[in-house]
Write a structure and sequence with these properties.
about 325 residues; alpha+beta; L-amino peptidase D-ALA esterase/amidase; nine-stranded mixed β-sheet; about 30% strand
């Protein structure tokens, strides 16, 4: 166990990034296909193929989830994942050609570093680097340009990144990978203690983002934040059950990010069930739901704890 999403059998992770421009992408590969679900809570999302992820769709399985920087521009890079899977003869068999199913989501990282975004070659490179064991976390892949705590503007934010965690439930693994680029602060779950977020321009210490919002008259910059991620399990779940897993995982966001699911966030969580642990899972669903929340909130905490300074912003470990 690596305490990461790669603890789920059938899941591989690959990153690629440009440390000069501070953007990058991450691919969650499930080459055998996994039942997919999604829940979009924020009102400023940047996504691809989310309708296909909903229960009742003809195609129930995805072959990868793509997470990327670059705002809507970054969605073009998914072509590189499609090309990689096509080269491996992986996809939904139409009888004519196998079409890879690759839902995707983006963060807005254009305010840090240069105005740049991942391209298909970078995404293809991320796929080539995919591995099934331990993998890098922090300011890597889609988390390269991530920041948190924008209530006082991007210059007073704190550097964030990408984190992952896993939980075992009666022999089943549930795990999460989160890219944390939130408008709000990241807090210790079930606590008011701030781990990372907006910094007071006078003292340099963290400020309560929700209290600042209640006192402000002007509205913050629109649509420049989001927390995106994937929860995965090796349980054999139906499409509606996977969709519900994605839904409850948002509780992990609500417990660790304040405020969360705002008008200026695009919070999106995909869910995958690889089915490597066959058997009736209905009796375990409540346990799986609880595990998904736990994995999500721990992945978010790790995303800020493992982040390093970049683009003139400090990491959380540097702020007192």
């Amino acid at each position: 166990m690596y305490d990461a999403i790669t603890d789920v059998a059938g899941i591989e992770i690959g990153h690629a990034e440009d440390l000069d421009t501070l953007t990058g992408c991450t691919v969650v590969l499930c080459r055998e296909g996994a039942v997919v679900g999604v829940d979009v809570r924020g009102l400023a999302p940047g996504t691809r193929e989310t309708d296909l992820c909903r229960p009742g769709s003809l195609v129930e399985r995805a072959h990868a989830i793509f997470l990327t920087g670059g705002s809507a521009f970054g969605l073009d890079a998914v072509a590189g994942v499609m090309r990689f899977l096509y080269e491996g003869d992986i996809g939904f068999d139409t009888g004519i050609v196998k079409v890879p199913i690759v839902p995707a989501a983006v963060i807005f990282d254009l305010a840090l570093g240069a105005i740049a975004w991942p391209d298909p070659d970078m995404a293809h490179d991320a796929c080539s680097r995919a591995e099934a064991g331990d993998f890098r976390q922090g300011c890597v892949g889609a988390g390269t340009g991530a920041t948190v705590g924008k209530v006082l503007g991007p210059a007073r934010a704190t550097k964030s990144g990408l984190g992952s965690a896993s939980v075992r439930v009666a022999g089943i693994t549930v795990a999460a990978l989160m890219v944390v680029n939130a408008f709000g602060n990241v807090v210790v779950p079930d606590s008011d203690s701030i781990l990372a977020g907006a910094r007071d321009p006078r003292t340099g210490s963290f400020v309560d983002a929700e209290e600042v919002l209640r006192q402000r008259e002007e509205f913050p910059t629109v649509g420049t934040n989001t927390t995106i991620g994937v929860v995965a399990t090796d349980a054999a779940l139906r499409s509606d059950q996977v969709h519900r897993l994605a839904s409850v995982a948002h509780d992990g966001i609500a417990r660790t990010i304040r405020p969360s699911h705002t008008l200026v966030d695009g919070d999106t969580i995909f869910a995958l069930a690889t089915g490597h642990m066959p058997g009736e899972a209905f009796g375990r669903l409540l346990g799986l739901h609880s595990a998904a929340v736990e994995a999500t909130q721990r992945a978010i905490v790790k995303a800020v704890e493992l982040a390093t300074p970049a683009g003139g912003l400090p990491a959380a470990t540097e702020v007192r």
